[in-house]
Design goal:
CATH class of chain B: Alpha Beta
Helix content of chain A: 40-55%
Oligomer: heterodimer
Radius of gyration of chain B: 11 Å
Number of strands of chain A: 4
Order of helices and strands of chain B: EHEHEE
Number of domains of chain B: 1
Structural class of chain A: alpha/beta
Radius of gyration of chain A: 22 Å
Helix content of chain B: 25-40%
Largest interface: A-B, 18 and 16 residues
Strand content of chain B: 25-35%
Number of domains of chain A: 1
Largest sheet of chain A: 4 strands, parallel
Shape of chain A: globular
Number of strands of chain B: 4
Chain lengths: 182, 77
């Protein structure tokens, strides 16, 4: 019998057979939370909390306007110099103070969104973010954005990871995490 | 119901993604083989629980619907 005539059975391919039985490992995710808009923050927190619930190892790199979302709600002004302070005054940081990118109407839009969400039992971005943290999702601040806006570790919410840079984020992707940019 | 549940999650009235998130939290406290029961009214939860079960490996033993309430029975892996 030549090699080509060998019967191809699962027993003949033990490696493949065991691979078939093996459970698929959950896909890991690497979010970039770039936007500070209410609707995008909401979408990001829905996906992040669900990823945690699905048992998918998930990291969320928070950068630029997204970092403003992770400043404590009670913190009114951030930054060291007048420009950094001015930016935080013009756009209040904190997850409870997000604005809609469209139809903000001086806060009327977000107020209606929150009212509707309550009526239809849709959880707030803050609740979802806390759920995500409880389910093991790690939120990681961008060091460069912290420097740019003068945001300190103590300005940020509790439980965040060590501040890192773009290379660390891309490292997650090169290790197999799927990138999601919001 | 075929089996008595060890834990019941009442997610009635809650919208996406809370039925799944609450279930994942409840499952954490269970031992392998224990039974979890979930009540939900979100019509999207039917497909969501199938996807969640497939992804996490927790078995979806039974699902029924009664008067707009979805009833899921799951066994922790």
């Amino acid at each position: 019998m030549t090699v080509a005539e060998l019967p191809v059975t699962p027993e003949a391919m033990p490696v493949l057979a065991s691979e078939h039985e093996e459970e698929t490992k959950p896909q890991s995710l690497a979010f970039i939370c770039y936007s500070g808009d209410l609707e995008k923050t909401w979408a990001g927190m829905i996906l992040a909390s669900t990823a945690g619930a699905m048992g998918m190892p998930t990291k969320v790199f928070v950068t630029f306007w997204g970092l403003q979302t992770f400043v404590k709600d009670g913190k009114r002004v951030t930054g060291d110099n007048w420009m950094q302070k001015m930016l935080s005054i013009m756009s209040r940081p904190g997850i409870a103070h997000r604005k809609l990118s469209k139809m903000n109407f001086l806060g009327m839009g977000p107020w209606m969104m929150r009212k509707l969400a309550k009526q239809y039992n849709v959880s707030s971005p803050k609740e979802l973010m806390e759920m995500a943290q409880a389910l093991g999702v790690e939120f990681i601040p961008c060091q460069m954005t912290m420097d740019l806006f003068g945001i300190k570790r103590e300005d940020l919410i509790d439980g965040m990871g060590e501040p890192v840079g773009a290379a660390t984020y891309l490292g997650f992707v090169s290790e197999g995490a799927s990138p999601i940019f919001i | 119901m075929t089996q008595a549940a060890d834990v019941t999650v009442d997610a009635r009235g809650l919208n996406c993604p809370m039925p799944i998130v609450k279930t994942a939290q409840a499952v954490k406290g269970l031992a392998s083989g224990q039974i979890l029961e979930v009540l939900a009214t979100d019509p999207g939860s039917v497909k969501d629980f199938a996807a969640w079960s497939k992804s996490t490996g927790n078995e979806l033993v039974e699902q029924t619907v009664d008067g707009g309430v979805y009833h899921f029975i799951m066994r922790k892996k």
